[in-house]
Amino acid sequence: MATLIVEHAGKRRAAELNGRTSIGRLSSSDVVIDHPTVSRTHAWIEQADGVYYIRDTGSINGILIDEKPVADRYPLKDGDCIRIGPASITFCDTTPHPHRDNTPAPQTKDFSETGILFTCQCGARLWMPASNSGMEATCRKCGEVLTIPDKHHKRTAAEAPLAPMRPAPPPPAPVVTEKALCSICQWELKPTDEIHKCPECGLTFHADCWSANCGCSAYGCKQVNALAPKEEAPARPIGDIGHPPDVAAAGPAPGLPKEHALLAGSVLAALLGALAFGIPALAVGVCCGIPIAMKKPLGKSPIVLLAALVSLIGFVGGIVFSWIWWL
User: Quick one: pLDDT at residue 103?
Assistant: First the structure.
């Protein structure tokens, strides 16, 4: 039995592997890791020929196994530490394989001297050391759990030692054939898999990949997020927008702005100051200079500055003109 020990956000939980297992941020994933750095469908784990493989489905942040990045399908072994986002996942394979790493003796040697040679029901030939007589072993070909016979086991003709053989000629180069791949997880589409075809762009997917991805994965396809739940915007309440203003009670319209009145007064005072030694222009200039000196908003208006300049010119010109006119 193979399990995943998932450690994330201070919690630890176990997940048993049974068939194809999806890991991602979606709540429909078999192993859910709710974190922004984890893609919706981040990785797949699948068993083939008794070996569990993990594969990245094109996620943004990728997968680390024993702190090393994995770019392609990777065979998992007992104790591998898988890093997906902030989560640490330990792969544990508890299937009884008491002699997983033992290498059989050469075929030209008599197996009866060092071990026990016996045949599984599927036809696979198995060899075990004589010291493991009575223990259980798993056939790598069919997965059947067998009891290892004792060293006095009577061999059949199929279990007889093989005669020395000449090295076989190298096999011919395999013919590369294009395999149909799922457009989301990039695993091969097998005849036994449930397949879904996009009705819009024609791409093929595993049925569970289509459901986990909420639709098609092709950019611009109308079936992207076709299965995603649609959220309806809440109705915005209509409040009291008030009453129209009462035009009759608004009062009289505003008169001439102050800055324009100062400008008009400075021009008129400059004309009158021509005969009064510039005194009217001086009075208007003082009125313009007070808000400028006090740095009030009115004094920052360019019209008020212009009115002050006209008053200054009218004051100087009035003194000169009146001196010539009267004296």
Answer: 41
